[in-house]
């Protein structure tokens, strides 16, 4: 009986680990859609990363709270240029159907530090909110 319980526990923990790896890969794929969509100025790649009702939030240059609906953000991308930046994922924290990702996009004279909140929807992992800090060098 003890062996059966031990085998079941090992099987269950292995399934959970496999699910987390799969979820982590899926979250990374969405973040890479965000990076590549930003880099190539491609709104269609960005749409793969974000939920259609997502929001972007930040403190503006004037020190006030700003919020932009994701559809307006998509309008900033027109497939007309390439952006050069270094991208980095600091961490991915997943809890079943919710995730938080800290990442950065570093340009020549400034860097964005972003916190992406994600949910596992029927369509897969989607960014539902992005909060940003802009560091000017």
From TrEMBL:
- Specify the signal sequence span: 1-18
Presence of the UniProt keyword DNA damage in the record = no
Keywords noted in UniProt:
Signal
* InterPro entries reported for this sequence: FrzH/put_lumazine-bd, NTF2-like_dom_sf
Q: Which domain of life is it from?
A: Bacteria
What Gene3D superfamilies would the database entry show?
3.10.450.50
- Sequence intervals crossing the membrane: none
Task: Tell me the protein's name.
Answer: Nuclear transport factor 2 family protein
Native organism: Urechidicola vernalis
